[in-house]
Each structure stands twice: as structure tokens, then as C-alpha cells.
Amino acid sequence: MKWGILIDILTKEQARNYSPSTLAFLGDGYYELLVRQRITLEHNMSAAKLHRAAVKKVRASFQASAVEKIAELLTEEESDIFRRGRNATGTVPRSSNPAEYRKATALETVFGWLLLIGETKRAEELFEVIYNSEEIEKQKE
User: What is the fold, at CATH topology level, of the domain defined by 12-140?
Assistant: First the structure.
């Protein structure tokens, strides 16, 4: 089952005019929606348990490790957007270290950019690699 997201699609040039922090803001919400959708469809449990499961996958440390799984799959344009997001300045939360937070922000920037340009299938492809890689690691434990 696929979900549609109602959003005006921008050209790549228009989307590039948004700041990395704005793209990350949008990408954070989009990425979390993908996580929540997947967890909800796979597990019928209490909202509290669903929330705890989602938090594990949206925290900066998880997103930073996810970057390693998709870095080589990014196109040249996506890599450029990623670098812009990684180099953006901002306050790092106490729950995270600066390197992890920058990688997580960069990942969210890519997801926000892909959503703005209407490339949701591409975002979902990257998300599948992240999600499936995590599942493989869990099975190894």
C-alpha cells in the first residue's frame, strides 16, 4: 500500500534555493512519516510501543549510521545536497554528538529535497535500503 503526499512539486532549481535547514526540516518530517508508516504496517501494538520503535529509527545516531548504507548510492546531485546539509550550521542537541547530528541533518536534507522535487519513489528506494540494511544487521545479532 502506497501513501500519497500532497505537495506542490518544484523544479530542482527552485528546490535548490531553499536553505539546507529548511530542506532538513521538511525531510525530518517526511523520513519520520516513512518510519512510522513502516512500523505501523508491520506491528499492531500500543501507541507507546510504536513510538519507542519509531524513536530508535529517527534519532540522529541511527540516521548517521544509515548514511553509511546509502552514501555510495547517492547521485551526484543528491551528494551535493547532502554536503550542503552536512555543512549547515545549527545547534547540536545534547543527546547527540556533532558528527552524528551533521550526518543526520544531511540525510534529512536529501529527503526534504527529494520530496520537494517530487522524487518520492527515489526517497522510498533510499529508505528501503536503510530499513532493510538495519533488519539484516539485527538478524546478525
Answer: Ribonuclease iii, N-terminal Endonuclease Domain; Chain A (1.10.1520)
